[in-house]
Amino acid sequence: MALEHLWATWRSAYVTGITDGRDDSGVASDADPEAEGRTLFERILAAPGSDDDKQIVRRGQRCFVILNRFPYTSGHLMVLPLRAVAEMEDLDPDEFAELWATVRDAVVALKAGLACDAVNVGINLGTAAGGSQADHLHVHCVPRWVGDANFMTVAGGTRVLPVSLDEARQRVRAAWPAGG
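Above: the chain's sequence. Below: its structure in C-alpha coordinate form.
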Protein backbone atom coordinates (compact mmCIF):
# COMPACT_ATOMS: atom_id res chain seq x y z
CA MET A 1 0.00 0.00 0.00
CA ALA A 2 1.46 3.36 -1.01
CA LEU A 3 1.37 5.93 1.76
CA GLU A 4 -0.18 9.32 1.24
CA HIS A 5 1.59 12.38 2.66
CA LEU A 6 -0.29 14.82 4.87
CA TRP A 7 1.57 18.05 5.56
CA ALA A 8 0.31 19.49 8.83
CA THR A 9 2.61 22.50 9.07
CA TRP A 10 -0.04 25.17 9.64
CA ARG A 11 2.54 27.71 8.54
CA SER A 12 3.80 26.94 5.08
CA ALA A 13 2.75 25.15 1.95
CA TYR A 14 4.35 22.09 0.46
CA VAL A 15 7.18 23.13 -1.83
CA THR A 16 6.71 22.02 -5.42
CA GLY A 17 8.74 24.50 -7.44
CA ILE A 18 11.70 22.31 -8.44
CA THR A 19 11.42 20.77 -11.85
CA ASP A 20 13.65 17.84 -12.53
CA GLY A 21 12.76 16.94 -16.11
CA ARG A 22 10.18 14.34 -15.06
CA ASP A 23 6.43 14.42 -15.29
CA ASP A 24 4.15 13.50 -12.34
CA SER A 25 4.66 9.79 -13.03
CA GLY A 26 8.43 10.16 -12.53
CA VAL A 27 9.24 9.59 -16.20
CA ALA A 28 11.74 11.92 -17.89
CA SER A 29 9.96 14.32 -20.22
CA ASP A 30 11.03 15.63 -23.61
CA ALA A 31 10.62 19.22 -22.38
CA ASP A 32 14.27 19.48 -21.33
CA PRO A 33 16.56 18.08 -24.03
CA GLU A 34 19.59 18.64 -21.76
CA ALA A 35 18.11 16.27 -19.14
CA GLU A 36 18.97 13.28 -21.33
CA GLY A 37 21.55 11.10 -19.65
CA ARG A 38 21.63 13.09 -16.41
CA THR A 39 20.49 11.74 -13.06
CA LEU A 40 17.61 13.27 -11.13
CA PHE A 41 20.06 14.79 -8.67
CA GLU A 42 22.27 16.24 -11.43
CA ARG A 43 19.17 17.87 -12.92
CA ILE A 44 18.19 19.30 -9.53
CA LEU A 45 21.70 20.72 -9.06
CA ALA A 46 21.63 22.25 -12.56
CA ALA A 47 18.07 23.61 -12.31
CA PRO A 48 17.61 27.37 -12.02
CA GLY A 49 16.90 28.75 -8.59
CA SER A 50 18.56 28.99 -5.22
CA ASP A 51 19.67 26.17 -2.97
CA ASP A 52 16.70 27.07 -0.75
CA ASP A 53 14.34 26.60 -3.71
CA LYS A 54 15.88 23.17 -4.32
CA GLN A 55 15.86 22.26 -0.59
CA ILE A 56 19.64 21.91 -0.59
CA VAL A 57 20.81 22.11 3.00
CA ARG A 58 24.56 22.15 2.46
CA ARG A 59 27.20 21.94 -0.28
CA GLY A 60 30.72 20.70 0.23
CA GLN A 61 33.64 20.32 -2.17
CA ARG A 62 32.56 16.84 -3.26
CA CYS A 63 29.16 16.21 -1.65
CA PHE A 64 25.87 17.92 -0.93
CA VAL A 65 22.87 17.44 1.34
CA ILE A 66 19.27 17.78 0.18
CA LEU A 67 15.91 17.25 1.82
CA ASN A 68 13.84 14.42 0.38
CA ARG A 69 10.76 15.94 -1.28
CA PHE A 70 8.80 12.79 -0.42
CA PRO A 71 10.10 12.15 3.10
CA TYR A 72 9.53 9.23 5.43
CA THR A 73 9.54 11.76 8.28
CA SER A 74 10.07 15.52 8.58
CA GLY A 75 13.71 16.36 8.00
CA HIS A 76 14.54 13.26 5.88
CA LEU A 77 17.93 14.15 4.37
CA MET A 78 19.94 12.61 1.57
CA VAL A 79 23.73 12.97 1.41
CA LEU A 80 25.19 12.57 -2.08
CA PRO A 81 28.42 12.97 -3.98
CA LEU A 82 28.25 15.83 -6.49
CA ARG A 83 29.53 13.41 -9.11
CA ALA A 84 26.94 10.86 -10.19
CA VAL A 85 28.15 7.39 -9.24
CA ALA A 86 25.95 4.36 -8.71
CA GLU A 87 28.23 2.18 -6.59
CA MET A 88 30.30 2.69 -3.44
CA GLU A 89 33.38 1.33 -5.17
CA ASP A 90 33.09 4.07 -7.81
CA LEU A 91 33.73 6.81 -5.23
CA ASP A 92 37.29 8.09 -5.12
CA PRO A 93 38.92 8.17 -1.65
CA ASP A 94 38.26 11.90 -1.15
CA GLU A 95 34.58 11.55 -2.12
CA PHE A 96 34.23 8.55 0.19
CA ALA A 97 35.78 10.42 3.13
CA GLU A 98 33.68 13.54 2.59
CA LEU A 99 30.49 11.53 2.09
CA TRP A 100 30.80 9.77 5.45
CA ALA A 101 31.98 12.90 7.29
CA THR A 102 28.92 14.69 5.88
CA VAL A 103 26.63 11.83 6.98
CA ARG A 104 28.06 12.19 10.50
CA ASP A 105 27.43 15.95 10.44
CA ALA A 106 23.90 15.40 9.08
CA VAL A 107 23.09 13.09 12.00
CA VAL A 108 24.44 15.67 14.48
CA ALA A 109 22.40 18.45 12.81
CA LEU A 110 19.20 16.37 12.75
CA LYS A 111 19.50 15.54 16.45
CA ALA A 112 20.21 19.16 17.40
CA GLY A 113 17.89 20.89 14.93
CA LEU A 114 14.85 18.62 15.10
CA ALA A 115 15.27 17.06 18.57
CA CYS A 116 14.66 13.59 17.15
CA ASP A 117 14.94 10.49 19.34
CA ALA A 118 17.03 8.54 16.81
CA VAL A 119 18.21 8.55 13.19
CA ASN A 120 18.06 5.79 10.57
CA VAL A 121 21.02 5.91 8.15
CA GLY A 122 20.96 3.74 5.04
CA ILE A 123 21.72 3.24 1.37
CA ASN A 124 19.87 1.24 -1.29
CA LEU A 125 22.55 0.20 -3.78
CA GLY A 126 20.78 -0.83 -6.97
CA THR A 127 17.16 -1.16 -7.97
CA ALA A 128 16.87 -4.67 -6.49
CA ALA A 129 17.84 -3.20 -3.10
CA GLY A 130 14.93 -0.77 -3.29
CA GLY A 131 16.68 2.20 -4.85
CA SER A 132 14.35 4.30 -6.99
CA GLN A 133 17.25 6.55 -8.09
CA ALA A 134 19.90 3.84 -8.37
CA ASP A 135 22.04 5.83 -10.84
CA HIS A 136 23.24 8.34 -8.20
CA LEU A 137 24.35 6.94 -4.85
CA HIS A 138 22.73 8.69 -1.89
CA VAL A 139 22.70 8.05 1.85
CA HIS A 140 19.35 8.50 3.60
CA CYS A 141 19.41 10.11 7.06
CA VAL A 142 15.91 9.76 8.49
CA PRO A 143 15.10 11.36 11.85
CA ARG A 144 12.86 9.22 14.05
CA TRP A 145 10.67 9.93 17.05
CA VAL A 146 9.03 7.49 19.42
CA GLY A 147 5.53 6.93 18.00
CA ASP A 148 6.19 8.33 14.50
CA ALA A 149 4.70 5.18 12.93
CA ASN A 150 1.30 5.72 14.50
CA PHE A 151 -2.32 5.00 13.55
CA MET A 152 -2.34 7.46 10.62
CA THR A 153 0.67 5.76 9.03
CA VAL A 154 -0.17 2.15 9.81
CA ALA A 155 -3.97 2.08 9.41
CA GLY A 156 -4.67 5.29 7.53
CA GLY A 157 -1.91 4.94 4.96
CA THR A 158 -0.95 8.59 5.47
CA ARG A 159 2.21 10.16 6.86
CA VAL A 160 1.69 13.20 9.06
CA LEU A 161 4.62 15.56 8.60
CA PRO A 162 4.49 18.27 11.28
CA VAL A 163 7.46 20.28 9.96
CA SER A 164 7.53 21.76 6.45
CA LEU A 165 10.47 21.27 4.10
CA ASP A 166 11.43 24.94 4.46
CA GLU A 167 11.35 24.87 8.25
CA ALA A 168 13.25 21.56 8.39
CA ARG A 169 15.92 22.95 6.04
CA GLN A 170 16.31 26.09 8.15
CA ARG A 171 16.51 24.19 11.45
CA VAL A 172 18.97 21.58 10.18
CA ARG A 173 21.14 24.19 8.46
CA ALA A 174 21.24 26.31 11.65
CA ALA A 175 22.26 23.24 13.69
CA TRP A 176 24.98 22.08 11.25
CA PRO A 177 28.26 21.49 13.12
CA ALA A 178 30.84 24.26 12.79
CA GLY A 179 33.58 23.34 10.35
CA GLY A 180 31.44 20.58 8.81
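The CA atoms of residues 115 and 145 lie 9 Å apart.
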